Known about the structure:
Blueprint: H1 10-33, H2 40-67, H3 75-101, H4 109-132, H5 141-169, H6 173-206
Helix pairs in contact: 1-2, 1-3, 1-4, 2-3, 3-6, 4-5, 4-6, 5-6
Amino acid sequence: MLKRKNEYNYFDAFADLAKYSYKLAVALNETLCNFDHSNISEKVKAAHEIEHSADYAKHDIMNRLVKEFLPPIEREDITTLTQEIDDVTDSVEDVLIYIDMFNIQSIRPEIIKFTNLIVTCCKAMDEALEEFKNFKTSKTLRDKIIEINRLEEEGDALYVDSMRNLYHTSKDPIELMCWTEILHRLEKCCDTCEDVADIIESIVMKNS
């Protein structure tokens, strides 16, 4: 059956939503690689504008779904996947918020490794969602999902190494508290990308 020209494409909407996560991950990485404490509030504001745009895109999907007679996949799956993608964007923004809130003056080297990894994770998620529209015939979607899982495992290992290094090199309780929380937020970015991959895999299984 031919698709009507004005028919809403949820798969395109998922891919568009993921691009906000990737854009914010790139902004986070660039901010921390060129860290300047004096302008961190401006960077947080810019990040929030990206997150706010992502919220509008998420609400548009939900508003479309309310009026949809027969969505291409289950309504619950559309709702869950939309929220999980949005959670990635929120988690990336949280990292900058906590760096500002804790008045961080300089960035530890291992943090840059983490933000580089988050950019890679978000890019992999973006690519998986671009391919998701072809899930019934795709030869590469499964590999893209596996890659996100691999990157999340890399994030777990980096988290453990970074925490070990933190507690071996610092005895200052405030510094330990601040960086422990920030590292937790960084790890969560990778975890939420994997959550998106898990939902995609579940949808594919249910519709195959």
